[in-house]
Amino acid sequence: MPEGDVVHLTAKRLGLALDGRVLTRSDFRVPAHATADLTGRAVLETRSRGKHLLTRVEGGLTVHTHLRMEGSWRISRPGRGTPPGDVVRLLLANEEWQATGVRLGMVDLLPTGHEARVVGHLGPDLLGADWDPGEAVRRLSAVPETTIGEALLDQRNLAGIGTIYRAETLFLAGLWPWRPVGAVEDLDKVVRIAQRLLHANKERPNRVTTGDARPGRDTWVYGRAGRACLRCGNRISRGEMGRGPQERLIVWCRHCQPERVTG
Ligand SMILES: [Zn+2]
């Protein structure tokens, strides 16, 4: 599932292909915007905001897309077909490049001045130029009885974390995922760890949270349920928490992230 780092890198790639160039083709394959045509307009800039992508186009329009579970943007030379079975939701092309949005979870076209409607609810963006850790901590603290695991995934608190960075951040912070936010002593530290992990991975396709890129050693707990913890050797646990069919997976080490803190 794409998280903030992947979306950030996607925005960068889209920007390199589209920004500053005039669209020679636009093809919205979603009912709400099936007749929209951006041909002849220049793309001004492409930005990520949490897990959202905003492509701003001449004439005060913004193409808003979200990768959700399995979406991706592919960059190719114009006129290239897509493999059969690919569900293309949006195609944007100029004379040099074609950007194909496959299995996008959301495709929307709105006035740039109305972007707040779709991203205004988001907390500080972990990879944004305006990242504000104090504000993220303030928002996390607002509902102290929420579990830290659910609070980190709530994009209204801070934007960019999915199940992978949630698991890795909680491991590095030594926190049991179900601990209430109000009982977490150092939220500042938690937020710093999450931001450091996303930053370290924002330019690279293969995610590494351990500093060791070898397969099976590139994450502390995510993808390692049932295997030995890289730190203590105990078996990594797997469970579910919170709501939403896709966002429930949680993996953690019972030894490194104890339910009860002693000493
Ligand atoms: Zn452990």
UniProtKB/TrEMBL annotation:
Residue ranges occupied by any FPG-type domain in the UniProt entry: 220-258
PROSITE patterns, A to Z: FPG_CAT, ZF_FPG_1, ZF_FPG_2
Keyword tags: DNA damage, DNA repair, DNA-binding, Glycosidase, Hydrolase, Lyase, Metal-binding, Multifunctional enzyme, Zinc, Zinc-finger
Record EC number: 4.2.99.18
Catalytically driven reaction(s): 2'-deoxyribonucleotide-(2'-deoxyribose 5'-phosphate)-2'-deoxyribonucleotide-DNA = a 3'-end 2'-deoxyribonucleotide-(2,3-dehydro-2,3-deoxyribose 5'-phosphate)-DNA + a 5'-end 5'-phospho-2'-deoxyribonucleoside-DNA + H(+)
Domain Formamidopyrimidine-DNA glycosylase catalytic: 2-113
Lineage top rank: taxon: Bacteria
CDD domains in alphabetical order: AcNei2_N (cd08971)
Pfam families recorded: Fapy_DNA_glyco (PF01149)
InterPro entries membership: DNA_glyclase_Znf_dom_DNA_BS, FPG_cat, FPG_N, H2TH_FPG, Nei2_N, Ribosomal_uS13-like_H2TH, Znf_DNA_glyclase/AP_lyase
Family stated for the protein in its record: Belongs to the FPG family.
PANTHER family: ENDONUCLEASE 8
Protein known as: DNA-(apurinic or apyrimidinic site) lyase
Protein's organism: Streptosporangium jomthongense
Lineage of the organism: Bacteria, Bacillati, Actinomycetota, Actinomycetes, Streptosporangiales
